[in-house]
Amino acid sequence: MIHRADRFTVVVDTDVLVGALSRNVVLSLAEEGFFRPRWSATTLAEFETAFVRLYGDAETARRQRRNIEDAFPEAVVCDGEALIDGLALPDPNDRHVLAAAIKTRASVIVTNNLKDFPKEALAIHQIEPMKVDDFVMDCIDLKGVEAVAALRKMRERFNNPHLDAEGLILRLEKVGMSQTATLLVEFKALL
């Protein structure tokens, strides 16, 4: 892992972790030290439940959760529960995400569920909600070749099936990360 003095803290929502490609992209960037990922214990429980619901495979869900926990043991935010009752969000079940962000002084919540994390509700805590596509695109904009190298490293780990640069770009488009895909076309030779 690259150690950076300027890394910022990001809370990752369940929906980002459940999507295999978004999970791999975001956690690959985190693994390379571009930011500090955080989430609540509730997020990991929701991840496991949603994974089973989507893919019908409880054992793989448990294994994926263990992999996340092993890769980022410091990411689980503790003691945020005391904040939950005082928070107002459209979906009260999402308050644990905002509590984790407040507790860790995160600057961003990465989620595709922006309707449940309105900017005005987060602004008072100086937190910005961002879609995963916007967040990854920003990482690439800020870190350029370093971020692309992290994504290439991730892509090279895929072996079932093997994924080339063009295939990764197409998969990103398919899962709704079209801005990231468009930006990566410029870096295709390095990807």
Could you explain the architecture of this structure?
The structure is a single chain. By secondary structure, this protein is of the alpha/beta class. It contains eleven helices and five strands, in the order βααβααβααβαβαααα. A five-stranded parallel beta sheet has the order 3-2-1-4-5, with helices on both faces. The chain is globular.
Question: Briefly, what is this?
Answer:
The protein is an alpha/beta fold. The protein has eleven helices and five strands.
Give the arrangement of secondary structure elements:
Elements: E1 8-12, H1 14-18, H2 20-31, E2 35-40, H3 41-55, H4 58-71, E3 76-77, H5 81-84, H6 95-103, E4 108-110, H7 119-123, E5 128-130, H8 132-143, H9 145-157, H10 165-174, H11 178-185
Parallel strand pairs: 1-2, 1-4, 2-3, 4-5
Give unreliable regions as ranges: 1-5
Arrangement of strands in the largest sheet: 3-2-1-4-5
* Span of the ends, CA to CA: 19 Å
The number of helical runs is 11
The H-and-E topology, N to C, reads as: EHHEHHEHHEHEHHHH
* Proportion of residues in helical segments: 55-70%
Question: Which features does this protein show?
Answer:
5-stranded parallel beta sheet, alpha/beta, 191 residues, disordered N terminus, 11 helices
